[in-house]
Design a protein that fits this description.
Radius of gyration: 27 Å
CATH architecture of the largest domain: Sandwich
Order of helices and strands: EEHHEEEHEEHEEHEEEEEHEEEHEHE
Largest sheet: 6 strands, mixed
Helix content: 10-25%
CATH superfamily of the largest domain: Apoptosis, Tumor Necrosis Factor Receptor Associated Protein 2, Chain A
Strand content: 25-35%
Bound molecules: zinc ion
Structural class: alpha+beta
Number of helices: 8
Length: about 300
């Protein structure tokens, strides 16, 4: 039998309380939970809770079901997302599905309270079944996706994990300090499609920032864009400013902006033009020489808003 407060089943958090079915008192506890579902969160029981969880799993897509939960005339349940996809046949017994809603199961679900799925990342929140999804979509402990976009990378984790990952697996340049001076050289600037995507990481103010530089097509015109992303959430990103400068021959373009959180994909930032945009002709002019090579020097600074 489990010790108080130490039992976990699946991701179901147990409330403190020793459950020993050999004692009448505890048997009473168990039956109370079954009879009064609203108490389930106060005194939980692993077998009851996990079997309810199983009942709430759609047999087709295996996701947790949310109202409206449907059932066939034999009582087999199905999620509303899968219902239109099974051609009105119960996937379990092949009977016609009709339009029967399973209110009882919807109500049982309402009585469940579950830990946030990012518990292992440090979130201690416990949420009612129906508000858990909303919380998880905004949970500050939810992992960040790898900000490197040169290839499809599925790595995700917290910021220290991603910094190590960028260093070790993507071999990105890491710099410390809040000012930088970076050269972008490309031998064939007329190829926009396969333009190398570059990422540099800066650490300053105890935070990490990613400098992106890439070529893309803006309408008919090939352009370059440089922008900064903050390795953290948007509310913290707003505390910083940055400037980027590119130029030569007595001309320069200056951009001042607010770094975007890496919660926003690099593509989203790029497509909103939230950065220093350099027309190709201007970029080649800044490169000097014979226009066969792109040679841009981007200087920048990051500072904290007071
Ligand atoms: Zn489903
Ligand atoms: Zn059925
Ligand atoms: Zn959470
Ligand atoms: Zn990665």
């Amino acid at each position: 039998m489990a010790e108080a407060g130490s039992t976990y089943s699946d991701d179901m958090r147990m409330k403190p309380g020793v459950i020993d079915l050999t004692q009448n008192e505890d048997l009473l506890e168990v039956s109370e939970q079954v009879n009064d579902a609203s108490q389930a969160s106060q005194k939980s029981n692993a077998p009851v809770a996990s079997s309810v969880r199983e009942l709430l799993e759609c047999p087709v897509c295996l996701n947790a079901m949310y109202p409206p939960i449907h059932q066939c005339i034999n009582g087999h349940t199905l999620c509303s997302g899968c219902k239109p996809r099974v051609h009105n046949r119960c996937p379990t017994c092949r009977h016609e599905l009709g339009n029967i809603r399973c209110l009882a199961l919807e109500k049982v679900a309402a009585s469940l309270e579950l830990p946030c799925k990012y518990e292992s990342f440090g979130c201690l929140g416990i949420y009612p079944y129906y508000s858990k999804l909303k919380h998880e979509s905004q949970c500050t402990f939810r992992p960040y996706n790898c900000p490197y976009a040169g290839s499809e990378c599925t790595a995700a984790g917290d910021i220290p994990f991603l910094v190590t990952h960028l260093k070790d697996d993507h071999k990105v340049d890491m710099h410390s300090g809040s000012t930088f001076n970076h050269r972008y050289v490309k031998s064939n600037p007329h190829e926009v499609e396969n333009a190398t995507w570059m990422l540099t990481v800066f650490s300053c103010f105890g935070q990490y920032f990613c400098l992106h530089f890439e070529a893309f097509q803006l309408g008919m015109a090939p352009v370059y864009i440089a922008f900064l992303r903050f390795m953290g959430d948007d509310n913290e990103a707003k505390n910083y400013n940055y400037s980027l400068e590119v130029g030569a021959n007595g001309r320069k373009i200056v951009w001042q902006g607010v770094p975007r959180s890496i919660r926003d994909t690099h593509k989203k930032v790029r497509d909103s033009f939230d950065g220093l945009i350099i027309q190709r002709n201007m970029a080649l002019f800044f490169s000097g020489g014979d226009r066969k090579e792109l040679k841009l020097r981007v200087t920048g600074r990051i500072w904290k808003e007071q």
